[in-house]
């Protein structure tokens, strides 16, 4: 993803029923020393605050915005919540808000979750421009990976992937800071900002992820 999801891309392409409903935690918290930062599932009641953050960041996020190449109808926030709940029941995607001092400072999403012989997912994220440089993106990605791979309530997947536009230097620094393994270029991987774009891909495998990374960040 260009590490940014629209309503549609959070769940599109992941709708085949898996039979593995996701048990989302009320919140995910980092080890002590990270202040009042947490991740929690997005809710219907977040509409006003979420819209305000996205509107304020519309120009900042536009270059990385994934879209629908068929230009289908958009979704309302309420429709998005319904689709997210359906996807949660099917075990195919989840969206967490990044919160700092009880304010939304970003979002991290899991999509394209597959079970069976693959046990894989793709992560995407964005951070409010006003909070860039505070380390929220790498911390959130490590927290989600820990939940995906290690947490008792998580989906216990084998692989977590991130795909990044080659010019997105900030996101490249995130995966480099975390030590995610580069896997090369995927041509025309995703429709972003009106065109099909190549992406650089990075991944963690479950037995290569070190939970102590959270304490070291």
Main beta-sheet strand count, sense and barrel state: 7 strands, mixed
What is the H-and-E element order?
Answer: HEHHHEEEHEHEEH
- Helix percent reads 25-40%
Q: What is the percentage of strand-forming residues? A: 25-35%
Provide the spatial order of strands within the biggest beta sheet.
1-2-3-4-5-7-6
Q: What general outline do the C-alpha atoms trace?
A: globular
How many angstroms separate the termini? 24 Å
Number of helices: 7
Which residue ranges are poorly predicted, with pLDDT under 50 across at least 5 consecutive positions? 6-17
Count all strands and give the number.
7
The average pLDDT score comes to 90
Supply the helix-strand structural class: alpha+beta
Radius of gyration: 16 Å
Helices and strands in order, then pairings?
Layout: H1 7-11, E1 37-41, H2 47-56, H3 58-61, H4 77-90, E2 94-100, E3 103-114, E4 120-127, H5 136-149, E5 159-164, H6 169-178, E6 181-192, E7 195-205, H7 213-216
Parallel strand pairs: 4-5
Antiparallel strand pairs: 1-2, 2-3, 3-4, 5-7, 6-7
